[in-house]
């Protein structure tokens, strides 16, 4: 009897030891999985430990993509990028070099209906298929997403129905730097500019201007307060009222923007010392800020001077560096400025550039920044290990 009890006791101890070994092994296995970045649902998951993940663009997750025989075929990166109304969540796949975009899928977004939400349209997304990162919007240069100035990136996501003017009293436009638009070669694209500070009324002005075929085709002038409320919308709803009787602020802004499009130059505006113009019927608001911001947009859009300006203003040292055949052609062949413009137009298409959604530059920029950050993550973090 005692012998049986001893045997039972020994067997029990052995079983307990085996169970302890199994449990310890299971815990160690799971700990190894976590520290190595493995995922039961995604065995190709990439560990983000040690990656500096902050700012307007955040890498949410990443994983390797494999071929049937187990070789790395590419990368899948899930990115959250700050848009106009919130973060845009997207899946981006790259080839095995980490440079070429294979697909992009917008998983979640809260952008403005009819404007920013067009980033989900196939017409916009198809531009990214097969493109080599880093990329940029046409008319802009590619930049490190972590260094993008949010103020410089701002634009108004409104259409023709909400074009507005800004009612602020600033320096007389007639005394500001007078840049004549005529004679400039403008690169196609959408450009924006905004005031650095909120004015005394609590609004900050911004202008978005579109160039197509060397012409101003669309202009939006608006202002917003620290709550993000657009003066155009407040004006249309009656929440923003002016002391003067007559057209609303929104109606005046549309008329002023249309006048610029019709005349293609801010020089067409006749402006008095208070910034009021009599060029637009019914206008009673100062257009000083509007003119200043339009000039800033056009400066960004005019990277190339005309032939005449180039020949007149080029220094001796720069002139010596020009190709002699080019100078001979420019000075003696009778080539016209329009011919020079045509030559420049032929070189406007730049690899790695895409068209922004019209009226939604912030949303478009968020997609571009997300792709560039994902590509940088692959090249500088994943492949660098």
Structure notes:
There is one protein chain. The protein starts with a helix and ends with a helix. It has helices at 2-36, 122-125, 150-153, 231-237, 249-263, 288-301, 307-313, 316-321, 324-332, 337-345, 361-382; strands at 57-66, 72-82, 87-95, 101-108, 136-137, 189-194, 204-212, 215-224, 353-354. It folds into three domains: 57-142 and 352-382, no CATH class; 153-301, Sufe protein. Chain: A, CATH 3.90.1010; 307-345, no CATH class. The chain has eleven helices and nine strands. By secondary structure, it is α+β, with helices and mostly antiparallel strands.
Keywords:
single chain; 3 domains; 385 residues; four-stranded antiparallel beta sheet; 11 helices; alpha+beta; Sufe protein. Chain: A; 9 strands; 34% helix; three-stranded antiparallel beta sheet
Fold topology:
Elements: H1 2-36, E1 57-66, E2 72-82, E3 87-95, E4 101-108, H2 122-125, E5 136-137, H3 150-153, E6 189-194, E7 204-212, E8 215-224, H4 231-237, H5 249-263, H6 288-301, H7 307-313, H8 316-321, H9 324-332, H10 337-345, E9 353-354, H11 361-382
Parallel strand pairs: 5-9
Antiparallel strand pairs: 1-2, 2-3, 3-4, 6-7, 7-8
Question: What is the CATH level 1 assignment of the largest domain?
Answer: Alpha Beta
**Gross geometry:** elongated
Oligomer: single chain
Question: How large, in whole angstroms, is the Cα Rg?
Answer: 30 Å
**Which strand order do you get reading across the main beta sheet?**
1-2-3-4
């Amino acid at each position: 009897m005692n012998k049986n009890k001893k045997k039972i006791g020994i067997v029990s101890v052995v079983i307990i030891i085996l169970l302890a070994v199994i449990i310890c092994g299971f815990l160690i296995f799971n700990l190894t999985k976590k520290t190595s970045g493995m995922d039961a649902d995604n065995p190709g998951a990439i560990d983000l430990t040690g990656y500096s993940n902050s700012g307007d663009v955040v890498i949410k997750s990443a994983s390797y993509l494999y071929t049937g025989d187990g070789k790395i075929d590419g990368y899948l990166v899930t990115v959250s990028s700050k848009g106009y109304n919130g973060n845009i969540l997207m899946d981006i796949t790259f080839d095995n070099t980490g440079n070429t975009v294979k697909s992009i899928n917008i998983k979640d977004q809260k952008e403005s209906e009819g404007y920013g939400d067009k980033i989900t349209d196939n017409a916009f997304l198809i531009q990214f298929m097969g493109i080599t990162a880093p990329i940029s919007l046409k008319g802009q240069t590619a930049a490190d997403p972590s260094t993008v100035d949010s103020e410089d990136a701002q634009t108004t996501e409104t259409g023709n129905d909400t074009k507005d003017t800004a009612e602020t009293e600033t320096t007389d436009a007639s005394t500001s730097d007078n840049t004549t638009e005529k004679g400039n070669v403008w690169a196609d694209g959408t450009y924006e500019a905004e005031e650095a500070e909120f004015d005394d009324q609590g609004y900050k002005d911004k202008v978005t201007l579109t160039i197509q075929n060397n012409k101003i085709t669309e202009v939006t002038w608006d202002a917003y307060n620290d709550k993000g409320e657009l003066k155009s919308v407040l004006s249309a709803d009656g929440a923003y009222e002016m002391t003067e009787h007559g057209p609303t602020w929104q109606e005046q802004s549309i008329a002023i923007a249309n006048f610029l499009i019709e005349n293609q130059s801010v020089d067409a505006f006749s402006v008095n010392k208070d910034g009021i113009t009599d060029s637009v019927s019914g206008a009673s608001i100062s257009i000083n800020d509007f003119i200043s911001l339009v000039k800033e947009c056009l400066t960004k859009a005019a990277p190339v001077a005309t032939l005449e300006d180039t020949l007149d203003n080029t220094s001796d040292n720069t002139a010596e560096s020009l190709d002699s055949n080019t100078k001979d052609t420019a000075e003696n062949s009778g080539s016209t400025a329009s011919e020079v413009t045509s030559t420049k137009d032929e070189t406007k298409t730049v690899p790695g550039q895409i068209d922004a959604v019209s009226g939604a530059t912030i949303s478009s920029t968020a997609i571009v920044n997300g792709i560039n950050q994902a590509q940088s993550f692959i090249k500088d973090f994943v492949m660098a290990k």
